[in-house]
Specification:
Elements (H helix, E strand, L loop, with lengths): L2 H21 L4 H10 L2 E9 L9 E6 L5 E6 L5 E6 L2 E9 L2 E5 L3 E3 L3 E8 L8 E2 L10 E4 L2 E4 L12 H6 L4 E3 L5 E3 L2 E2 L2 E4 L2 E2 L4 H9 L6 E7 L14 E6 L6 E12 L3 E13 L2 E24 L2 E25 L4 E13 L2 E3 L2 E6 L5 E11 L2 E15 L5 E24 L5 E28 L2 E22 L6 E2 L5 E19 L4 E20 L8 E20 L3 E12 L10 E3 L4 E4 L7 E12 L2 E21 L3 E26 L2 E18 L3 E20 L3 E10 L2 E3 L3 E3 L2 E12 L4 E8 L7 E7 L2 E9 L3 E11 L3 E2 L8 H6 L2
Parallel strand pairs: 1-8, 15-18, 37-40
Antiparallel strand pairs: 1-4, 2-3, 2-5, 5-6, 5-7, 9-51, 10-11, 11-17, 12-13, 13-14, 15-16, 17-18, 19-20, 19-50, 20-21, 21-22, 21-49, 22-23, 22-24, 22-25, 23-27, 24-26, 25-26, 26-28, 27-28, 28-29, 29-30, 30-31, 30-32, 32-33, 33-34, 34-35, 35-38, 36-37, 38-39, 39-40, 40-41, 41-42, 42-43, 43-46, ...
Length: 823
Amino acid sequence: MNLPLTKNFLRLFYLTLLFTCLFQNGFAQQQQQQQQQDQFLLKGILKSTDRTDVAGATVILKDAHTARVLKQMATQTDGAFSFNLNSSDYVVTVTYLGSVVYVSELVKLSGNTDLGILKINTGAVSLKEVVIKSTTNKPAIKIEGRKLTYNVQSSITAQGSNALEALKKAPGVIVSQDNSITLNGASGAMVMINGKQTYLQPEDLAQLLKSMPSSDLKAIEIIKNPSAEYDAAGTGGIINLVLKKSIAEGFNGSINVGVAYGHTLKQNTNLALNYRKGKLNLFGNYNHAFGHYAMDYDNDRTTNGKIYLNANHDIDKKRYVGATAGADYAIDSTKTLGIVVNSNFSSGGGLITPVTNIYNQSTGQLIQILRSQSSYPEQLANRYNFNLNYRYKGQNNTELSVDADYGIFDASTQNLSTNSYYSPNNQFQSANNFLVANSRNIKLYALKADYGFRVGKGKLAVGGKFSNVNAGNVFDQYDANGAVNILNINLSNTFNYQERVSAGYVKYEVSLSDKLSLDAGVRAENTHSDGQLEPRQGSTQQAQSVVRNYLNLFPTAAITYKTEKSGTYNLSFARRIDRPAYNNLNPFSYPVDELSYWKGNPFLQPQYSNTIALQYSYKKTAVSTSYTHTSDLTGTVFEVFGNNLVNMVPRNIGTQSNLNLTVSQQLKLAEWWNMSLTAMGYRLQNNVGTPTYGDYKFSRFAGTINVQQSFNLPGSITAEAAAVVNSKSIVGLNTYVKGNSQVDVGFQRSLMSDKATLKLAVTDLFWANRYNTDSQLPNLLLHTTYRGETRQVRLNFTYKFGNTKVKAKESRESGLQNESQRL
């Protein structure tokens, strides 16, 4: 795709966007008339806590953004109520005998909606304030539309850890030893935070998630087929981490202090503050986690007549610190301006002590012993992000949102690797010591705008986004065999990478009838990337340049059929992309250890996926099936070179087909016992190959079961038992991942009139969560075993202070409640 064509396309898109914005007011009268014709039913039933019908209570319907009373009615003798309403955002308030007894969360009405049974305490709440209630009891796992939600905040066993550990508990998510994330067996899942990309590589993203406490998470959303307003990145789908946000009036906050013990003691603290008054909302957060984290892993291989049995013990001494500050200001009843600044820091040293025994394959005789030590004096990673946002919500379902982001990521590591070779009788033979200094710097900025308004019977949404990422990687390797470290200019380099993505989309949502609705759109993304390898002066390396420019279209569509008696059906389609990670394009080879190297591939192409999904849900049951075909599949290939050394190289290895079936069931086994059961099964078929190893065609059925159980026990105690079981699966060129499992148990007790909670949990009770792989290639057999410090005892104490209640009187909260719910 040539650049002039790309520029002309973008000009055409932005002119279209401008034309739409300028003339949308001309449709206002038509939209108002149409809106009066298209109304939806909102209904529910009011019952007291002893299950009796509540008749004569007043149900008040308010505009969620102006708090203006729109309608009200008295409940019937059976406690039922109903309203016919236009599509918009509402809040339901219930008063009984002069007291406010219920206030709902935000209700986004876009179709006929049944709130179900609303249970109230008819005499315990005062007129002036009311604790916010959910419209339903949120299960641990919920499937709705194209989204699966794991409610982290309701999980006892997820507390006291970090976001990465919480992510591993989400159904279908597997995090490998190299921090790559697969979703239902498919690689390329995009992790977002509050709907925003992080633009970080897997190892840097893992450090960020480790620095985020799980107590900051409200939920984890898994979206298999996102619509056109989402970035097209992520062939495996989107994993969105939704952070908590208070909507209570006045000053309030919470502090969470915890300790954990696995092999060593760990400590974590999280402080959250919020002040909301009138038009202004201020919020802040501080968290830290300190401790030592251990892992044992083996990397065994057989090649060219030799067997290498490698055992490693890894200890990371980590300090994670994070802070957030922000403000929202309601300009008027329709406009909100916000600013958020957050930062995350990690530091600490590490020590890896590998021992490799080298055998003769034919005789089994020990030939040589390699004793190594990799010492990391300090590992630093700092991230800063600044966001400025604007929200407008007008009449006729008109919405405008603008986000501007600027981020900085800095990381640096040093590794002194000492390697000594010994004979089978422990006689010293030789040594090879080297020092590696690596620094990474990423600067990014992004501007995003979305605009939606009614057209005909539906809603038209258009938007655009521009992002620019500049990533620099400086790698220096020193010979450390003498008294002075000497820079090896032939093994050192600088790799600078820039990536610019310009995107635009258009999407139309419409209700074709009271049961049938359509959502269709298309997104265009133009990518320009420029990678420059700069060798050291005097080096034998050659400077290299990798420049690309390509334009892609990503259509999306979904049709939904919804009935009250037989449930909801949803059929969707989406096309998505995975662009290569920055360092994967760096053609330089750098050491992982004495015997293994990582080498980038400047010819690596993006991988693309096309997914079609069908979902059915009814009451507490959800069933979905999907088929995904991925082309230009990216995988890491192990290639032998030199004196039995191994290069790990990312390559486009072929295609993958993934047929998936997911069943989710919510069960109430007793008044005190609830269960969420999610079972996933998928069949992977890989048609892959490389010039070195030839072609492979293999397939396998795999699956995972996720069970979350909660128990209400006497004495204000709740308990949880959670289990995840993963079967054997396949990844990459020809790698089999063995099955694993994890069982967690936890207890929680409310204290101090529900202002405090004490949580005790044991994770990976049977220490069965390990990551083992086997790969068989011509002249190369590989076996790996990873076992981390997953079995831990965790104790957490949480205390809430200040005003934790929401005023029930009419207030001018404008778009702030909508802002807290928009993700």
